[in-house]
Design brief:
Distance between the termini of chain A: 37 Å
Strand content of chain A: 5-15%
Order of helices and strands of chain A: EHEHHEHEHHEEEEHHHHHHHHH
Radius of gyration of chain A: 20 Å
Largest interface: A-B, 48 and 47 residues
CATH class of the largest domain in chain A: Mainly Alpha
Number of domains of chain A: 2
Number of strands of chain A: 8
Oligomer: homodimer
CATH topology of the largest domain in chain A: Dehydroquinate synthase-like, alpha domain
Strand order of the largest sheet of chain A: 1-8-5-4-2-3
Structural class of chain A: alpha/beta
CATH superfamily of the largest domain in chain A: Dehydroquinate synthase-like - alpha domain
Helix content of chain A: 40-55%
Mean pLDDT of chain A: 96
Amino acid sequence: MLGNFSYCNPTKLYFGDDSLKFLKDELNNYGDNVLLVYGGGSIKKNGIYDEVVAILKAAGKNVAEVAGVMPNPTIHKLNEGVAIAKAHQTDLILAVGGGSVCDYCKALSVSVNYDGDPWQKYYINFEEPDCETLPVGCILTMAGTGSEMNAGSVITFPEKKLKIGHVFADEKIMPRFSILNPKYTLTLPHYQMVAGIYDIFNHICEQYFSDEDDSTTDYIAEGLMRSVIHSSRIANENPQDYEARSNIMWSATWALNTLLKKGKTTDWMVHMLGQAAGAVTDATHGMTLAAVSLPYYRHILPYGTAKFKRFAENVWNVNPDGKTDMQVAEEGLQAMESWMKELGLAMHLSELGAREDMLPDIANATLILNSGYKVLTKDEVMQILKESL
Amino acid sequence: MLGNFSYCNPTKLYFGDDSLKFLKDELNNYGDNVLLVYGGGSIKKNGIYDEVVAILKAAGKNVAEVAGVMPNPTIHKLNEGVAIAKAHQTDLILAVGGGSVCDYCKALSVSVNYDGDPWQKYYINFEEPDCETLPVGCILTMAGTGSEMNAGSVITFPEKKLKIGHVFADEKIMPRFSILNPKYTLTLPHYQMVAGIYDIFNHICEQYFSDEDDSTTDYIAEGLMRSVIHSSRIANENPQDYEARSNIMWSATWALNTLLKKGKTTDWMVHMLGQAAGAVTDATHGMTLAAVSLPYYRHILPYGTAKFKRFAENVWNVNPDGKTDMQVAEEGLQAMESWMKELGLAMHLSELGAREDMLPDIANATLILNSGYKVLTKDEVMQILKESL
């Protein structure tokens, strides 16, 4: 049953190895004060920073900077950025980086003109902004989160061991434009590349493993999953394969730009478990998802067998002849496991710095959603985390 | 190879059996003068007209009307509408109908403030508008053309036997909003339903059968084709199945809202042949496409065998074991042929009123595109039309 919904995603995308040249035109749509936001400095090493700054200068922009946005951007870093953005009277926030930088910029967008505590308002109360928001543009340097074409923003409060995402309702909080150059992703370490690939794949899974219907949405999801599997195998062998990396980048955008949830319910428990592990260990997002996925999916398999069977057949080409539904479904998860190992993903939380004594903290930080094939109990969360260790 | 491109599709979609209730909110975004445009009057029989007019009146709008937009809207009807729209000082053009009405409204959008001949400018010279364009909103009553979320517009010049489509470059010419209520499609005659379904399927084919790469775009196309095949079989058995009809409606939108052509080349020769047949016979669009498709695809099969083999395996589940590529590819087309016959589509142009003596006219009206696996000669066009008769 394709339920009722609305869809609007106005983000303008420029895709390809020449896409940065369109930044100049986009800058004409905004005022003079640009806040340039980036991460740990890799864009200074690979030259992207210099290219972007040259374009900003040529356009006559006044540029202020927020540097050092961390992989799990903190509320403290957000507060620091709000002060800089205010002092600069920012007209456009320009994110140059991966999903973390882009998420951070959306958090800035809704916080600069808000006088209260953004953590409480947006990440605890999940309220929508009632202040004026600032436009965000994005130059993406890593494929994975889909943050370049959605209104989601994940922020971490390290002292509280909380990492919480808010998907804002207003499409104005989506980046107004995003520049997607697959070449920028070629210099990423293999570890970051495969973590991003699994993040993409899991975004699709989170929206796919819910409902048992025949919606068009799920057929699109299957196409995207097949594409990610295919291109990831090529990129794993040869990370410099531009075609594979470009397909991965494009899949990432469509995996989480709201299309795959239209007309259906979603799950998102792998992200809840993984984000909790990330808040406690500060491990790479995609790797935390990888480590908890199979224990979680095997746990919910009996409650959603029909969909896992369909996943096995339509995504992994499992031949169902002469097998029970459960056997077909389990073969699909085995195929997924082989692929994950082939990519070199983290298959255990212990590989990511987690120890048994941290599990209660991770379990406590896990938001249990009322979604998917089985709403977990606290005990089940702990059991899945133990199996993931 | 996923080539360079930009993507922007800001159309706001309201989908579902309650979607008309959002019209009220959308009307707030436009001035008081609304031009209501519709077709042959079926919306008066099924009550949609009364519902829409009541909402317009309650919102205090001044409404003028263009009624009687025909299935292949003519340039003469366009000129008539331009005069009405001008006299009404139109702020919003509201299409209530299928793709023809929506196409017509986009033609109005670019013509009302243009002083010259829109046929020459937009449909012969394929120029972009340099005048101010009017916003279009759409209430869709038939699934098929995808016109509800793109900037395409097909207009016919009957005396010249020409039916020509222009996909405008500016996303402002896309409908600003579209209301998609699958219930509105339930009252369509079976013939119109299956013609729409084939139109959808062929839109996907036109963008799929070009290039031989591994692009994400083609994987999404395969997912959409599988969904259309699945839901069409259910709707063919039971046209009142809301779930199937809703999936068909949603597939139609994504089949032709620009996503499936991103990063790749396209074909579109089936549409060129079918539109020429439509201009000469005035037959239903989707049926003309059905009648010419298999002769065309079998003709180009030797030039694109690898893609037709992939189509057979990924869309029609053809088992390739022990078969040549050509055999696998041909089995895919046979599966497609069986499905088309199952739906009751026109398999010959003669079923649509075409006679052998009309074929030279149809051939002359066929625009030969420099695209796809084989650029046709004039002789090949004639040969395919003979095989389609």
